[in-house]
């Protein structure tokens, strides 16, 4: 069974104009997790995040507007790598990819959901919170995962303790993480990026303060660790 990161790498243009293959965890140090209620906010929000240096954007499937928002960003902001989060059912994985999602994220996983995400043809991050769940995914050839809910499940100390016995697993911790805690996670060898919501404060999104969003994204992008690993 092929390793997950080798199945469908994402493509990114380097500063020199070359196209390179990277994994989702290596696109940026922070993966913005956004909830969109108003589709008209989706495109300017995505443009602000990309302008700040965060190209990957997770749109959670928690609202009726989510799939339409994903489609709008995919069509109108080609420089963004838009994906779907809170994927709970196989049908959602299929619908998200049809809408233009380029990756999938789930808070946990079942055999059916894992099969559907694998069959989707796009990178995916199944959620884990225990060592046994990590082992089960490694047995299935999945190396990149979402650690959720990160802060409640043990935080950076917990992930640090997994790095020794499970060195091939890499994580995107998400859940309760702010810019301060993000640094501790990103200092770990088994963390590629962190997921967070602080770059898109609800009041800034409601008021259309895209300058503030871009600035917060720019600050988050500076959290990048040197020497990120790509498949």
UniProtKB/TrEMBL annotation:
Q: Which InterPro entries match?
A: Aldlse_KDPG_KHG (IPR000887), Aldolase_TIM (IPR013785), KDPG/KHG_AS_1 (IPR031337), KDPG/KHG_AS_2 (IPR031338)
- The EC number of this protein is 4.1.2.14
Judged by the first EC level, this protein's enzyme class is lyase
Tell me the superkingdom of the source.
Answer: Bacteria
Q: Which Pfam families match?
A: Aldolase (PF01081)
Name the UniProt key words of this record, in alphabetical order.
Carbohydrate metabolism, Lyase, Schiff base
The pathway this protein participates in, as annotated, is: Carbohydrate acid metabolism; 2-dehydro-3-deoxy-D-gluconate degradation; D-glyceraldehyde 3-phosphate and pyruvate from 2-dehydro-3-deoxy-D-gluconate: step 2/2
Tell me the GO molecular function terms: 2-dehydro-3-deoxy-phosphogluconate aldolase activity
Can you state which reaction this protein catalyses? 2-dehydro-3-deoxy-6-phospho-D-gluconate = D-glyceraldehyde 3-phosphate + pyruvate
Q: Which NCBIfam families match?
A: eda, PRK05718.1
Q: What's this protein's family per the entry? A: Belongs to the KHG/KDPG aldolase family.
Subunit field text: Homotrimer.
Supply the name of the protein.
2-dehydro-3-deoxy-phosphogluconate aldolase
From the broadest rank down, the organism's phylogenetic lineage runs: Bacteria, Bacillati, Actinomycetota, Actinomycetes, Kitasatosporales
